[in-house]
Specification:
The chain has about 170 residues and is α+β, with helices and mostly antiparallel strands. The chain is built from 3 helices and 7 strands, in the order βαβββββαβα. A hairpin with a 2-residue loop joins strand 4 and strand 5. The longest helix is centred in the C-terminal third of the chain and has 26 residues.
Length: about 170
Amino acid sequence: MAKKTQKAWLLVASYSAKNWTKDNCINYYKRYKKRNGNYKDEWSVQANYTTGVIKNKDRVFLIKVGRPLRDEEKGIVASGNVAREVYKNRGKNYIDIEFKNFHNPDDEQSILSLPKLEKMNHGLTQKNSQIWTSQNSGITIKESVINKLEKAWEKKVKEEKRREEELKQ
């Protein structure tokens, strides 16, 4: 029997949203660093298609997008796992996330950039291609790209750890 792929979701930090600013993402990053990588927080998701679908322990990736940003500034800045399924709070739907890795969103070297993400769609049909620039948080990461994403993110995490060690010396 084939091993079932773990579900993965794309969460959006949109720098063009009215209620979101660059400082929000930086503040999440600072809280993660302050807690030595032991950081859990809530994130809003679109309820019309995520309620009852996003499950505990599902994988999540946080992508930074937005109109004022160049493509090289957009990309994956964090990953983790769902710690609490969809719930209502202040009239919105949220999930709790346990962040496992959170990179400095202001450092282009720390980000798995949009151009690299878009290369993961190379050779895929439009149906199987991932939309990386959605403004909606909580969209499914397609099975056709999840293994490529995990591998590229793992490489980026290792690079970032090496860079941090070098800065300490």
